[in-house]
Specification:
heterodimer, A: about 200 residues, B: alpha+beta, Glutaredoxin, 2 domains, 8-stranded mixed beta sheet, two-stranded antiparallel ribbon, about 40% helix
């Protein structure tokens, strides 16, 4: 492990430890909006940092099971789906082991596999992932905005609606960024949009 | 063969992921904690401890042991409420009229429990009942006798009350049904007195 990898590993661990301190946990889970837009993305980013600290040898070994980044994408998608369930957000507030499961699973089963698999994904796989990400933001945002009932017992209706608005804004921002990149930018500049395959 | 290995890994991930999601949603039936609470109670009735003690609007002291032997329709309220609970109070007054017969025969008891005992004194509870047209029999309004009892009640009945930032609470209001053996057996919608009345009538001997 070289110096840069060590720094990333240490910073990811420090952030996760800080985020698990009870007062920080309470703050990050105090509203639906904070939990979905700050807590989960932050923990996911820690996992991505970890992925950049994985030594080359281990990365190559994993790549043999992750052609085109498909395995990592599936793992991250299923875990992400679990943390989108309203009852999971409730349980993270009410049940300590669920809060712990979130602290471990969002970095290790979402951020880490995405970070490892992203460079292996080709243009099409990335496109499907990003389109699905935008669609998920819109779907959830719309649902939270129009639902007349609270989907989480621990959070207020106006919090749910604010989260809905934010998700629509975020979905639109990602969409506009991608559309701009498609029209005027490049996706890595690799011939025919193919990512290089592992050895 | 990276492709074959990836296929294998992906199949394992899909199988594990589908199992995890099935587990987390009670077999795709419950996506919210409120639905999950209702399914759990229907499938695993919860004994309500007989020792949980209440102080009623008339100032008398009872516990759940005293209420055994008849069906109970229970809701959780706080008297300052201006939203849900105004509906809840009206629904209970309606149940009192609809179910007058079984109430008179002591086969059934209506019970409104405040989760805000510091504010809801017996006098305020009595006022709450008057406000919604309490017909005078079969409906008890009460508060937990102490804070520990309040917490136990909320836990057993699966009630979550969150401060709404305006001095009130937001809570998962419902009509909860306790059977004569003192087990919480089902949770019904707070605004559907008819469904609750039908449920109880279906359970009572004719």
């Amino acid at each position: 492990m070289n110096g840069a990898e060590k720094r990333r590993l240490v910073s990811a661990l420090v952030i996760v430890v800080l985020a698990s301190l009870p007062p920080v946990r309470r703050a990050l889970q105090s509203s639906m909006t904070a939990q979905m837009l700050i807590d989960i993305p932050l923990l996911g980013a820690c996992g991505w940092l970890l992925a950049m600290a994985v030594p080359d040898g281990l990365g190559r070994a994993l790549a043999r099971w992750d052609s085109g980044g498909i395995s990592g994408l599936l793992l991250a998608s299923f875990t992400g789906l679990l943390w989108m369930l309203p009852r999971a957000l409730d349980a993270a507030v009410e049940v300590p082991w669920v809060a712990l499961a979130k602290l471990a699973s969002v970095p290790l089963l979402i951020g880490l596999p995405l970070g490892l698999s992203w460079p292996r994904m080709g243009f099409v796989v990335r496109g499907v992932f990003l389109a699905e990400l935008v669609a998920t933001c819109f779907r959830l945002g719309w649902l939270y905005l129009i639902s007349p009932v609270r989907l989480c017992s621990n959070f207020l209706l106006d919090d749910q609606q604010r989260l809905g608005e934010w998700l629509l804004v975020i979905g639109a921002a990602i969409f506009l960024y991608l559309a701009g990149k498609l029209l005027w930018g490049s996706f890595g500049g690799r011939g025919r949009g193919e990512a290089p395959q592992g050895p | 063969m990276p492709v074959a290995r990836t296929l294998l890994a992906s199949l394992a991930i899909v199988a594990a992921g589908a199992a995890a999601i099935a587990f987390a949603t009670d077999g795709l039936r419950a996506f919210t904690s409120e639905t999950a609470r209702r399914i759990d109670i229907r499938e695993h009735p919860r004994p309500v401890p007989a020792t949980l003690a209440l102080e009623t609007a008339t100032g008398s002291h009872i516990d759940f042991g005293d209420l055994r032997g008849r069906w109970l329709l229970v809701d959780f309220i706080y008297t300052r409420c201006l939203t849900y609970c105004t509906v809840q109070g009206g629904e209970f007054a309606q149940l009192q009229r609809k179910l007058a017969e079984p109430l008179r025969r002591d086969q059934l008891q209506l019970l409104s429990i405040s989760f805000d005992p510091a504010h809801d004194t017996p006098a305020r509870l009595a006022d709450y009942q008057r406000r919604f047209g309490d017909a005078g029999a079969g409906w008890i309004a009460a508060r937990p006798s102490d804070p520990e009892t309040r917490d136990s009640l909320l836990r057993v009945f699966g009630v979550t009350a969150v401060a709404d930032g305006l001095g009130g609470f937001v809570h998962n209001a419902a009509i909860e049904v306790v059977d004569p053996q003192g087990r919480l057996v089902t949770v019904l919608d707070y605004d559907d007195a008819q469904a609750a009345a039908d449920y109880v009538r279906g359970k009572l001997p004719r």
